[in-house]
Specification:
The complex is a heterodimer. Chain A is mainly alpha-helical. Helices cover about 70% and strands about 0% of the residues of chain A. Chain B has 10 helices and 7 strands. Chain B is an alpha+beta fold.
């Protein structure tokens, strides 16, 4: 077939070479594939790392966030319902930090830090090409950066990053961190969400995370080849939009619900329910006394019982 | 500043060109003013500029260099950035450009390739990308191999739009993930040494939408399918499909309206299947 041959020569001819033989093409191919020992780990495993980055955004990071926001929104039902779910999570006991680090913290750190590497490799050009998908390309990167710093702050603010008591009591608490106490879940989370600045910060952070996940699922479908045609990508984009809007409602409701149980009558009622639940768990022998998981100072009238 | 004639058209057109005297040199803007004619394209504008060889102030200047060949949007040689958008100069019609912006027409060389001179760029990286993904069917030989397998109508219809690619570079010019690679020649380096170094650098950069789509074109061909795995392996090597960030500018700016994002998603699916198989079967 001379036509195919001329395609080959055309290709190479335009590339500024004189007509090479097929052998030269093959040998060039081999040269190009030779492993360069100087290439870094990131470069040698670029495909695998990019796919792991894509996957980790959905599982476990994205999936965790969906559950996290839904659990938190359950505070709208009552402080007790939310507290019940926190007890379920904390029933993992000594395994909890292992699960946290394996399935939440390490994947988030990988996704976030490798995401910064990815951002470094691109040059957004939305002013020159202001097309919709291109705007979302830039927004995906911007929301990723916002989400990463928000999550860092959020985990410090509520959780304190690490469990060591010297850190939690000596450093984190002094810097406004580690405010969430799992056995006074709704009331401590609510009290941490009273300042207007914090509420605005959380709202922006949650919206950035939600956009990043919804748009990330859409791009992930293209990356892995789930939806290929323009029409299928359009349909997927509508589904992702509905998902994103719904999750944003859940997330913002959770912030509102926490704020509500963090002051006034809501706080008092939440404290009563939480302390009663703690007392009953203690009385039934399910729980050991774990003061570090409770608010300091604990509400006095229930604490006097033991 | 632009006076109109009785039929509403301007007497003259202002053209601003980003010029560069040679590879690696500093670029500079230059204004030109040429007489208006009906139905001009950017190529005829550049021809008038070359004829005048004088800038807007009347100073003698070297003619602006540009590349062109077919003049009917099938070769891709005259691709440049016209009024901020990458396109072919031959089908960039002056009347439409003036409707967008009557004040002037702005011409820049493509920003992702090394500039040779003025509006001429070296798109060797595009052709190197075709070599990387083996965008051909290796049927050369001494003996007659007979006719190839027949292609179904539906396959032909899938392949035809992809075969329209002219490697013009619009897709990668608009791509935020495709960043410029330009090497400078070292002291005492021969042409061959420089070319080798350049090819190595190009092989490590992002392969770009055009080459990904060509890999899919040849993977869809019944004969080309025999080398499908090699093409997918090339697409998962350094600078492969994983670099795509789904900004999808490529498909919007493609002058041939090639479904590039579909090709990218199909390449993504092929890469998914191939990498799982490689993991489980080898």
């Amino acid at each position: 077939m001379p036509a195919a041959g001329s395609i080959l020569y055309y290709t190479l001819g335009v590339a500024g070479k004189t007509h090479p033989t097929h052998f030269e093409v093959l040998s060039f191919w081999k040269v190009a594939r030779v492993n360069n020992p100087q290439t870094s780990f990131l470069v040698r495993h670029e495909f695998l790392l990019r796919r792991l980055h894509s996957l980790s955004g959905l599982i476990p990071v994205g999936a965790y966030m969906v559950i996290h926001l839904m659990v938190n929104a359950s505070v709208l039902e009552s402080a007790g319902v939310f507290q019940d779910k926190v007890y379920l999570i904390h029933s993992l006991g000594k395994l909890l930090p292992v699960v946290e680090w394996t399935f939440i913290f390490i994947p988030i750190l990988f996704h976030g830090l490798f995401g910064l590497v990815i951002i470094k490799g691109g040059l957004p050009n939305t002013s020159q090409y202001p097309y919709q998908a291109n705007l979302r390309y830039s927004l995906q990167r911007a929301s990723g950066v916002v989400a990463f710093f928000f999550i860092m702050w959020h985990v410090f603010h509520m959780h304190g990053w690490i469990h060591a008591s010297w850190w939690i009591d000596g450093v984190a608490a002094a810097w406004g961190g580690a405010q969430f106490k799992p056995y006074n879940a709704a009331s401590t989370a609510g009290m941490a969400l009273q300042s207007g600045l914090v509420i605005v910060g959380y709202s922006i952070g949650v919206l950035a995370c939600v956009f990043h996940l919804a748009n990330g699922i859409w791009t992930m479908g293209i990356t892995w080849g789930v939806w290929t045609s323009a029409a299928a990508q359009q349909r997927a984009s509508r589904v992702c939009t509905v998902f994103g809007v719904a999750l944003a409602v859940v997330g913002l409701s959770a912030i509102y619900g926490m704020w509500q149980v963090g002051h006034g009558e809501g706080l008092e009622k939440a404290r009563q329910v939480e302390d009663a639940m703690y007392a009953s768990k203690r009385a039934s022998g399910v729980l050991e006394d774990q003061p570090h998981k409770r608010s300091h100072p604990p509400a006095s009238h229930t604490e006097n019982k033991h | 500043m632009t006076t109109s004639t009785h039929d509403g058209n301007p007497e003259a057109i202002n053209v601003r060109v980003l010029r560069q005297d040679g590879p690696g040199q500093a670029s500079y803007w230059q204004r030109h003013r040429i007489a208006y004619e009906h139905d001009m394209n950017v190529i005829s504008v550049l021809q008038k500029i070359a004829t005048q060889s004088r800038d807007a102030d009347g100073q003698p200047v070297a003619p602006v260099a540009w590349d062109c060949n077919c003049l009917e949007e099938v070769c891709g040689a005259c691709t440049m950035v016209v009024n901020g958008k990458t396109q072919q100069a031959c089908t960039a019609l002056v009347d439409r450009l003036l409707a967008e912006n009557p004040a002037e027409i702005e011409l820049r060389p493509m920003s992702k390739f090394p500039v040779l001179r003025d509006l001429m760029v070296d798109r060797a990286r595009m052709f190197q990308a075709l070599k990387r993904v083996k965008a051909w069917i290796p049927v050369d030989g001494y003996s007659d191999m007979g006719p190839g397998p027949r292609q179904s109508q539906s396959r032909q219809q899938l392949a035809y739009p992809l075969s329209e690619c002219m490697t013009c570079g619009c897709c990668v010019e608009a791509c935020p993930q495709y960043t410029k690679i330009e090497l400078t020649r070292r002291n005492g380096e021969t042409d061959e040494q420089f070319a080798t170094r350049e090819e190595e650098a190009y092989n490590r950069g992002f392969v770009g939408a055009a080459a990904i789509s060509q890999a899919m074109l040849f993977n869809e061909n019944p004969t080309g399918q025999m080398n499908a795995d090699e093409r997918v392996d090339a697409l998962t090597a350094e600078g492969g499909i994983q670099v795509c960030g789904n900004a999808q500018n490529c498909v919007v700016v493609c002058p041939k309206e090639i479904p590039l994002t579909k090709s990218i998603a199909r390449a993504g699916r092929a890469a998914t299947v191939r990498s799982i198989k490689r993991w489980l079967d080898t």
